[in-house]
Amino acid sequence: MHVIGGSASTSLAERISRELGNAPFAIPFTKRFPDGEMYVRVGGRLEGEDIVIVQSTRTDQDLVELFLLEDAVKEAGAMRVFVVVPYFGYARQDRRFFPGEPVSARTFCRHVELDADGVVTVDLHSPQTLKNFTKPAYEASGIPAIARLLRERPVDVLVSPDRGGTDRARRMAQLLDKPWFALEKKRIDSEHVELTLPDSLPTRIEGKHIIVVDDVISTGGTIVEAAKLLKRHQVGAISAACTHGLFLRDAFERIKAVTDEVFSTDTLGNPAEKASVAPDIAQLLLRAASA
Ligand code: R5P
User: Fold this and answer.
1) Burial of residue 175, with CB atoms counted within 10 A of its CB: 0-12 exposed, 13-18 middle, 19 or more buried
2) Probe ligand 1: pick from 214, 254, 255, max atoms within 8 Å of CB?
3) Is 74 annotated as catalytic?
4) 231, 259 in Cβ contact below 8 A?
5) Cβ–Cβ < 8 Å for 275, 264
6) Phi and psi for 152 in degrees, rounded to 5?
7) 180 Cβ partners below 8 Å, 6+ apart?
């Protein structure tokens, strides 16, 4: 396998190539034309090879770069193309909420797989999004990577900030052999949420080290409210952990101000990137290649 690191995922791509037994790794040449259009060129001998392209799609430009890279490696004679999208943008619009809207997640699944023989992604917003792919598609979880890191830290209780994250908190709790519970979340608007404790808790939380686990930290509103709520109940320490750290605007600083530590995986570059999903992705790539 040859690994190509798109500009949104260069470091993670290099880690994945190491996990694949030091597979050849390359960073494509990219530039912009005067009108803003993107140009990419992939180097190396790719003819007859299995190629892995790693590119998160946080921005529209990342998507354009991914589509160009897929075409470029096909043109260069790649035998099979595996596309790794560690953070799959547009996944939150996974259904039509109001008439006239697109199902954005579905349309980008179709476009991403067009020139691919397989797709690997990490913690999609909703698991059913994977069903939009017609080619073999695999979803890694960020939970084992965060759990590997938390094994070296004090942890008493895992908390999901909403019921939607129940499976994540439960899985992390199982890996660490700790209790867990989910908060009740009411979304006020895209930046504000109201959180409350559930009616009954599985354990005392006073003085305990709580880890709030989420899939995405975006504006930071959810984690900040969760930390404030838990502090009102005299917990000992609070850490925030997520798979995808978007940390929009001043989100990272706002979260740091109300927590003791912030952890994220490396699906996106950010200041809290402390756990790597590279081993988990590499494992799925080997499975995809042998399928
Ligand atoms: C919601 O369904 C997600 O799991 C996250 O809780 C949410 O996307 C976090 O967003 P924010 O950081 O803007 O509160």
Assistant:
1) middle
2) 214
3) no
4) no
5) yes
6) -95, 10
7) 157, 158, 159, 160, 169, 170, 172, 173, 202
What is d(CA 169, CA 183) in angstroms, rounded to the nearest whole number? Answer: 11
Contacts of 107 (CB under 8 A, 6+ apart): 90
The CA-based dihedral angle spanning residues 155, 176, 92, 133, taken in that order and rounded to the nearest 10 degrees = 160
Q: What is the pLDDT of residues 93-142, one digit of tens each?
A: 999 999 999 999 999 999 999 999 999 999 999 889 999 999 999 999 99
- If you search the block for the tokens 């798109």, which residue do you land on? 6
Output the pLDDT for position 9: 98
Q: Would you state the structure tokens that stand for residue 37, as one six-digit string?
A: 């259009």
Number of neighbours of residue 59 by Cβ within 10 angstroms: 11
29-32 and 38-41 beta bridge pairing: antiparallel
Instruction: Please count the residues of the chain.
Output: 291
In angstroms, what is the span from residue 165 Cα to ligand 1's centroid?
10
Mean pLDDT of the chain: 96
Which ligand 1 atom is at minimum distance from the Cα of 220?
12
**Does the Cβ of 161 fall within 6 Å of ligand 1?**
yes
**Matching residue, tokens 């890996």:** 175
| 135-166: pLDDT as tens digits | 999 999 999 999 999 998 999 999 999 999 99
> pLDDT at residue 187 above 90?
no
Q: Which residues contact 60 (CB under 8 A, 6 or more apart)?
A: none
